[in-house]
Amino acid sequence: MNTLELEKYSSRLMGLIPPERIVKAEFPRPSKEIIDRFLEIDGLTPTVSDVLDSMGIKGVISASRLRPVITGKKIVGPAVTIRYIPESITPDYGHEQKERAKLADRDVYAIAEEGDVPVFDAAGLGDVSVMGGLSTLVAKKWGMAGNIIDGGVRDVDTIRKLDYPVWSTGQTPITGKYRVEAMEINGPISIAGVRVNPGDLIIADDSGVVVVPFEHISEVLQKTIIAVKKEDDVVKLFESGASIEEISKILPPSKW
């Protein structure tokens, strides 16, 4: 992405990453109608997980791996991505030499659209923070739906005070300054072994995180709606005292 394409974001960009490391800012995103329809569904990530299994798509991460900082939250939105790698210097050297910190979270928010979900590939370094209180404030102010962090976060009390949805590998007081370097924004990344591209649909709730590849979003939604209806019908029949034979016509017990 050349610097001319970034001019429309110049009022928000903070220059935290070299512009040549920003792959793109504009890409296809799912419609608001699709996102709203997903949000209406209860038991969302387990049902979508089953649908992805049936389609042979690897896209599910359990909450034991990416844990919600605030329980009871549910988010659905297109991914914007950032990839970190460990720094090549020690923190002591960085502080002594007054090196420039290489965290770039706020530049991700700067080129994102309202309702996007920033997804951080920090190599699962849960004991090192790549997001803190100020980052949370900017993300919320600029309308992000919530963050997915395959790495650590800090200032957890601030995240909860701001009531901002975050899922992370770890919670830590240790800063990422002089420990990690932002290598790329809006390129393909991997979180917990699952590939994420900008524009993929991110779904997260208390059960975990699901990544739906952009090209499969509409199909996954339709299959999810059908699956939810079948389950609702089974529940109603069971509660009404219907026989197993009647219930099996809707959904065989082996598929419950």
CATH homologous group name: Ribonuclease E inhibitor RraA/RraA-like
Number of domains: 1
CATH architecture: 3-Layer(bba) Sandwich
Order of helices and strands: HHEEEHHEHEHEEEEEEHH
Task: Note poorly predicted spans.
Answer: none
Largest pleated sheet: 9 strands, mixed
Q: Structural class of the helices, strands and pairings?
A: alpha/beta
Query: Would you give the CATH topology?
Result: Glucose Oxidase, domain 1
Strand content: 25-35%
Determine the fraction of residues in helical runs and give it as a percent range.
25-40%
Question: What this model shows, in words?
Answer:
By secondary structure, this protein is of the alpha/beta class. The protein is 30% helix and 25% strand. The strands form two sheets. Strands 1, 2, 3, 4, 5, 6, 7, 10 and 11 form a nine-stranded mixed sheet that branches. The protein has a two-stranded antiparallel sheet with strand order 8-9. Strand 4 (117-129), helix 5 and strand 5 (147-153) form a beta-alpha-beta unit. Helix 2 (44-55) crosses helix 7 (217-239) and helix 7 packs antiparallel against helix 8. The mean pLDDT is 93.
Descriptors for this entry?
single chain, 256 residues, alpha/beta, Glucose Oxidase, domain 1, 9-stranded mixed beta sheet, two-stranded antiparallel ribbon, 25% strand
Task: Provide a quick synopsis of the model.
With 256 residues, the protein is of the alpha/beta class. It has helices at residues 32-39, 44-55, 91-96, 105-111, 133-141, 156-161, 217-239, 244-250; strands at 60-62, 67-68, 75-86, 117-129, 147-153, 166-171, 180-185, 189-191, 194-196, 201-205, 208-212. It is 30% helix and 25% strand.
